[in-house]
Amino acid sequence: MYNYLLFIHILSAVTAIAAVICYPIIMSSARTVGQTKFALSLLEKTAILPKLGGTLLLLTGLAIGFQETYLFREQWYVASIVVFFIILVIFARLLPVGNKQQLKLLQQTQGDDLPEAYRLSRRRSALLEAVAILAVFVSILLMVFKP
Question: What predicted TM-score, i.e. pTM, was given to this entire model?
Answer without folding.
Answer: 0.85
